[in-house]
Amino acid sequence: MNFHTEEPIHVQLAGVEKWYNELNVLKGMDLQAERGEFIAVVGKSGCGKSTLLRLVAGLEQSSSGFIYMDQKPLKSLNKHARIMFQDGRLLPWKRVIDNIRIGLPGEWKGKATEALENVGLGDKKKEWPNNLSGGQRQRVALARALVHDPELLLLDEPLGALDAFTRMEMQGLIESLWQQKKFTSILVTHDVEEAVALADRVILIESGMIMMNQEIPLARPRQRTQPAFSMYLEMIMDRIMNRMPKKNYIVEQNYQMS
């Protein structure tokens, strides 16, 4: 996928700062995402990743600078976006199908059922959330986010509490639905391997500033055992850990996207 086009920028941050009293969390941040792009944001705890996501969602307002959706300033809750959190945030007193229908106008049943089928849980619509596994609850949370057909999906460590196998299954599901529905996505994660597996670009934040903006030009589905995948993973980890690179980073043309 080539993002060097004449298409208008879908999401843009221009000089965004965020202060909490005397604490400067984000410092003059500039970032652009084109429509349909998948961006992953990584960095150590406390660097400002989740704050960035809340600002783009319109859950908080920036202290200075501007956030634009399709060149229009974002001044309140971002109606074009849905956000998915680590804990799913399902309502335990509502059955699965009723968690999905929240906010849906009119005749909702068909759309809610389709959303559950898209995440492989069509047979769980009458279950209570507490009867589901952690992975199943996150599938419900993903369906609840996507049932509104958002232009922008924001993912705040949504897979952080899952076991390794379930996490990889969910990564594949998110990638598949992103490719089908063509929404723009911004993923915040501590897992650099997850970032390289899913993202078109990986953004590294340090102390509230963007210190790396790395395109990942690998064909999909990505093979984690291929040398180019390992190279990008090592490159980003070296930068996060402030390690000297062990070798020059050279990507073989065979592993790049055409």
- The helix tally amounts to 7
Q: In CATH terms, what is the architecture of the largest domain?
A: 3-Layer(aba) Sandwich
CATH superfamily heading of the largest domain = P-loop containing nucleotide triphosphate hydrolases
CATH class value of the largest domain:
Alpha Beta
List low-pLDDT spans: 1-6, 251-258
- Here the CATH topology of the largest domain equals Rossmann fold
How much of the sequence lies in strands comes to 15-25%
Query: What is the SS-derived class?
Result: alpha/beta
Order of helices and strands: EEEHEEEHHHEHEHEEH
Radius of gyration: 19 Å
The figure for the number of domains is 2
Distance between the termini: 8 Å
Helix residue percentage = 25-40%
> Biggest sheet, open or closed, and with what strands and sense?
6 strands, mixed
Q: What is the typical, i.e. mean, pLDDT?
A: 88
Strand order of the largest sheet: 6-7-8-3-9-10
Q: Give the overall silhouette.
A: globular
The number of strands is 10
EC number: 3.6.3.-
Protein name: Sulfonate transport system ATP-binding protein
Domain ABC transporter: 11-232
GO molecular function: ATP binding; hydrolase activity
